């Protein structure tokens, strides 16, 4: 699959995204991409629906989720289950847009000499262990019949086969771990629901706090609104036969 989209095309394509209607949930909704995904899914035209209800979770939502505290995920999953029950709707779409590259806990490594146990621990916590706990607590909320889709935002630099530049040891390794978790969960999810889809997605370089220090001339940086629309359109074009794949924002398969 290889697409060139206008936003109008994306909206038209993405009408197929979920059937039957249900609840969409964005985790990591406070980030650049997560906020844009939530806004697109909540759009008044329902371009990426049909999602009568869009729920958004982050460290500052109510309930809040923090990957440092599994009980926050457990409580948030119970809250989502209650929201679905109240509305008599199933969870049909889960998008996990959380991630960590740099911050108080450290910076991505340029050399093995910069490897630091605390940074590695944090980057694995946010990029791999947190999403794994999301799988544990939220994938069981999907119905056992009908299309349902989970997308975990990964990164092309997590591809081992595509690693030509080196550097960014922790971020690369944590996203590679995420990719393996997604593949493994996709197999278990298919056993529960044969129409399910569970994929890892590379959003391209997106204008956000995560990419800002690394933006350099010549790099194609896209607005989060565009990137979110592209990821949703890719999801709309995938079927259960594509579950367990690693795709970029144009829908192209990436090497593991
Ligand atoms: N930007 C790019 O160019 C780019 C390129 C390739 C891949 N990606 C991937 O795209 C995804 C979205 O990134 P972004 O650009 O939107 O970055 P961002 O604006 O920095 O957002 C990061 C998100 O991660 C969440 N997060 C961080 N630490 C967390 C923790 N301990 N527990 C729970 N959530 C936590 C944040 O939650 P709060 O809202 O609670 O702060 C926020 O929603 C990430 O997976 C990133 O790796 C981005």
Could you outline the blueprint of secondary structure elements for this entry?
Blueprint: H1 7-13, E1 23-27, H2 32-41, E2 53-57, H3 70-87, E3 91-96, H4 117-138, E4 148-153, H5 169-192, E5 196-202, H6 224-237, E6 246-248
Parallel strand pairs: 1-2, 1-3, 3-4, 4-5, 5-6
Bound molecules: NADP nicotinamide-adenine-dinucleotide phosphate.
NADP nicotinamide-adenine-dinucleotide phosphate binds at residues 28, 30-34, 58-60, 65-68, 97-100, 126, 130, 153, 155, 203, 205-206, 208-211.
Characterization of this structure:
With 256 residues, this protein is of the alpha/beta class. It has a single domain, classed as NAD(P)-binding Rossmann-like Domain (Rossmann fold, 3-Layer(aba) Sandwich), CATH 3.40.50.720. Helices cover 37% and strands 12% of the residues. The protein has a six-stranded parallel beta sheet with strand order 2-1-3-4-5-6, with helices on both faces. Helix 5 links the parallel strand 4 and strand 5. Helix 1 packs parallel to helix 6, helix 2 crosses helix 6 and helix 4 runs parallel beside helix 5. The site of NADP nicotinamide-adenine-dinucleotide phosphate (NAP) has 28 residues, from helix 2 and helix 4. The site of NADP nicotinamide-adenine-dinucleotide phosphate has 28 residues, from helix 2 and helix 4.
